[in-house]
C-alpha cells in the first residue's frame, strides 16, 4: 500500500476510513466465530470427562495419552500441537490480526497504533518458521485421528457404522483437507525449484504440488469447516456419553 495513504489513514484514528461498504462484517464475524470455538474447546479440553462413547473418541483427546504422573485432563498433553498449528497458520493469523489486534481491521481502515511492527519483530516474526514444525507434528496427530476414525467401525469385534462413525470420518476428511492445503506444505513440496522436470522425483513433486495447491486455494473454507467439525464431533460424542442423544447404528 502507498506509504502516504497508510500514514494518512492511521493518523485519523481507529476505524477511520473512506470505504463505503460494510468492511466491519468480516472481522466481527471472525472474532465471534473464533471466540465461540475457543470458549467451547477450552471447556471441553479441561473438563476431562465424557470424551468417549463405545468406539468413538473425541478429537480433543486423541491420541489418548495419560501418564500416571499427569494430574490434569489428558487432552492437555496433545492439544498444544493443533493449537500451535492453527495459531501459526497464515490464514488464522490474518483473522486474529484483523479481528482482535485490529492491525488493521480491514484494508484501508485505520489501525489503533502507528507503532505496530507486524511480523518483523519478536515474537510474531518466528510464527512462519514455527508453523512448518507444527505442520509436521500435526500430520502425526492427523494420522492418529484416521486410526480413531477407522476404529469407529469396530463395535466390540463386529463391523458396523454408526452416526458417530460418519461424524468422525467427516471430521478427519475436513482436517486432512485443511492440513494438506497448508501453504508451508505447498512450499515444502514445490518450493525452491526452477523446474520440476529437472529435479529428482520431479514428476512426483509436481503431482503433490498440484494436489496441495488445489486444497490451498480453498484454505479459508477448510480452516473454518475443520475447526467447527472438531468441536461438533466432540459435542456429538459428549451428548451420546451423557445419554442425551441416541447413536443410530447398523452393525453386521
Ligand atoms: S497455512 Fe494454514 S495450516 Fe498452514
How would you summarize this macromolecular structure in one to three sentences?
The chain is mostly helical and 252 residues long. The protein is 54% helix and 6% strand.
Description:
With 252 residues, the protein is mainly α. It has one domain. The protein has helices at 3-10, 25-47, 80-87, 90-99, 127-151, 163-179, 183-190, 202-216, 219-241, and strands at residues 52-53, 56-57, 154-155, 158-162, 249-251. The longest helix has 25 residues, at 127-151. The chain is globular, with a radius of gyration of 21 Å. Bound molecules: FE2/S2 (inorganic) cluster. The site of FE2/S2 (inorganic) cluster has 8 residues, from helix 4 and helix 7.
Main sheet: strands, sense, barrel: 3 strands, antiparallel
Q: Helical proportion?
A: 40-55%
Bound molecules: FE2/S2 (inorganic) cluster
Q: For the terminal residues, how far apart are their CA atoms?
A: 62 Å
Mean pLDDT: 90
Number of domains: 1
Envelope shape = globular
- In what range is the share of β-strand residues? 5-15%
SSE map:
Elements: H1 3-10, H2 25-47, E1 52-53, E2 56-57, H3 80-87, H4 90-99, H5 127-151, E3 154-155, E4 158-162, H6 163-179, H7 183-190, H8 202-216, H9 219-241, E5 249-251
Antiparallel strand pairs: 1-2, 3-4, 4-5
Helix pairs in contact: 2-4, 2-9, 3-5, 5-6, 6-9, 7-8
Amino acid at each position: 500500500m502507498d506509504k502516504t495513504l497508510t500514514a494518512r489513514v492511521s493518523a485519523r484514528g481507529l476505524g477511520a476510513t473512506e470505504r463505503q461498504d460494510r468492511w466491519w462484517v468480516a472481522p466481527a464475524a471472525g472474532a465471534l466465530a473464533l471466540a465461540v470455538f475457543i470458549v467451547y474447546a477450552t471447556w471441553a479440553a479441561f473438563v476431562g470427562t465424557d470424551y468417549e462413547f463405545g468406539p468413538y473418541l473425541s478429537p480433543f483427546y486423541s491420541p489418548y495419552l495419560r501418564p500416571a504422573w499427569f494430574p490434569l485432563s489428558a487432552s492437555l498433553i496433545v492439544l498444544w500441537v493443533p493449537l500451535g498449528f492453527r495459531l501459526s497458520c497464515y490464514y488464522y493469523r490474518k483473522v486474529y490480526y484483523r479481528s482482535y489486534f485490529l492491525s488493521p481491521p480491514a484494508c484501508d481502515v485505520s489501525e489503533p497504533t502507528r507503532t505496530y511492527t507486524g511480523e518483523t519483530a519478536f515474537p510474531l516474526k518466528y510464527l512462519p518458521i514455527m508453523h512448518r514444525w507444527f505442520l509436521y507434528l500435526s500430520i502425526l496427530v492427523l494420522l492418529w485421528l484416521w486410526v480413531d476414525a477407522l476404529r469407529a467401525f469396530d463395535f466390540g469385534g463386529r463391523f458396523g457404522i454408526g452416526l458417530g462413525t460418519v461424524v468422525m470420518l467427516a471430521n478427519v476428511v475436513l482436517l486432512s483437507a485443511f492440513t494438506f492445503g497448508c501453504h508451508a506444505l505447498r512450499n515444502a513440496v514445490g518450493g525452491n525449484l526452477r523446474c520440476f522436470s529437472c529435479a529428482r522425483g520431479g514428476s512426483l513433486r509436481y503431482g503433490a504440488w498440484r494436489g496441495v495447491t488445489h486444497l490451498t486455494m480453498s484454505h479459508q473454507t477448510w480452516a473454518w469447516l475443520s475447526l467447527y467439525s472438531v468441536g461438533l464431533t466432540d459435542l456429538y460424542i459428549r451428548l451420546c456419553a451423557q445419554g442425551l442423544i441416541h447413536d443410530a447404528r447398523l452393525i453386521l
